[in-house]
Amino acid sequence: MQVIELSWWQLSLAVVLLLLLALITHLNRLGLARSLVIGGLRTILQLSLIGLVLETLFAANSLLWVSLLGLAMLLLAGREVMARQKRRLTGFWAYGVGTLSMFVSSFSVTLLALIVIIGPDPWYTPQYAIPLLGMLLGNTMTGVAISLDRLTELAWQQRQAIECRLLLGQTGQEALGPIRREALRAGMIPSINAMAAAGIISLPGMMTGQILAGTAPALAVKYQILIMLLLVLGTGLGSFLAVVGGSRRLLDQRERLRLDRLRQPENS
Amino acid sequence: MTAQSLTTLKLITGQLSGISFKFEPGELVCLSGPSGSGKSCFLRALADLDPHQGEVWLGDREQQSYSAHLWRQKVRLLPAESQWWQERVGDHFPLDFDTSQLLDLNLPAMALDWSVARLSSGEKQRLALLRALAWTPQVLLLDEPTANLDAQRVAQVEDWLQYKIRQEGWPVIWVSHDTQQIKRLADRHLEIRAATIREVPLAGD
């Protein structure tokens, strides 16, 4: 099967439609036009750039360049996780807890998939490594960001109950137990829902893309199943690490709740 | 288990400093001072819930030589405002809690099955007191334990607590604003003044 070429003027048609939508929202004073246009521009620019990067990377096929791109993606994801926290940890930890959790989970699951399951030669073949890592980082990022945000927010809301439990002689981890469970649950719900909806309510993007690109559906489905399971694995591990790291930071060595280690939200 | 004394040595917490006192077993010490003067900070430092400087000793062992939760199992602080995080009252109590104690404070034995949402402030205060003693402590720090009770209940809780304190030999710090209550209860009276704690003579009749 041949992939039908997509030319720039065909893409510009979609752009015109987006601008039309922006115009309609503007006329209705929904205040979304600006975000729509900026979002659209960012999509076009960022994807075009990554397209160029990938072309070069595929041609080079070197471990060094693949690792560098992986690192850059990780650091950007870490920044994004930090930006989504309402009450983030102070100092290095705001960035560190999320980024480290994503690093451990995304990179280990990607390596597992590359070396043990898919097995391209060489194992870092960019055509496999980069899309896999990208999908894992993207999903893990959401899970980690939600988990950390829930953890710090709940610790703030329930600070008196947590301290009451500490005063009754519970250990720090016992006292934080309920909010840790809730934070982990919140982080994993989106990927659990995605598993349940896959193929019935939604056709997953990667599978759709492969089919559009001419892959036989049966093979595309196999890849999609693999990816979905890996994503849940990565998100679960990432959220878990973020909750463990974050809750350790919420307590000090005397098992006190240290909310002075959280920054106040800027505008509330 | 023999009763032990609680000793503070040059304790510094919040705006208070230079706090060196010994609280003997079975001794009921009342603490008073204007609001915001640091009474709660002092109690929280004793329970090791706030960072502080100086030393706190239980008998011949220093606070920092215990792991923090073991220390708080021995040195029990009852905050002024009680907290409830489960639906049912009984889920906040140990499984082997002796329900006959509820009757001592005029609560029915079935109070453990009540929902937390329907508790009055007075019931909350008495239940929080019972809960604080349910995991047996060795020192008791009470932050206005009768603030939400009417006069009749206050007398009942005071009698019951005094009996328990004498029986168990706990050193007790009882924060109170009520001069009459201090007169009724205190073996000694401490007062917060000018960023430190001083002992003041008990008021005569």
- Mean pLDDT score of chain A, rounded? 92
Low-confidence stretches of chain A: none
Distance between the termini of chain A: 56 Å
Mass-distribution shape of chain B:
globular
Radius of gyration of chain A: 22 Å
In total, the number of domains of chain A comes to: 2
Structural class of chain B: alpha/beta
| Beta-strand share of residues of chain A | under 5%
Structural class of chain A: mainly alpha
Please mark out the parts of chain B with pLDDT under 50 across 5 or more consecutive residues, or reply none.
none
Strand count of chain B: 10
Helix and strand string of chain A, N-terminal first? HHHHHHHHH
Side by side, the strands of the main sheet of chain B go 6-7-8-3-9-10
Largest sheet of chain A, in brief, is:
none
The end-to-end distance of chain B, rounded to whole angstroms, is: 37 Å
Supply the number of helical segments of chain A: 9
Q: Looking at the chains present, what oligomeric state does this protein adopt?
A: heterodimer
Q: Let me know the largest β-sheet of chain B.
A: 6 strands, mixed
In which range does the helix fraction of chain A lie?
Answer: over 70%
Per the principal axes of the C-alpha atoms, what is the gross shape of chain A? globular
Estimated radius of gyration of chain B: 17 Å
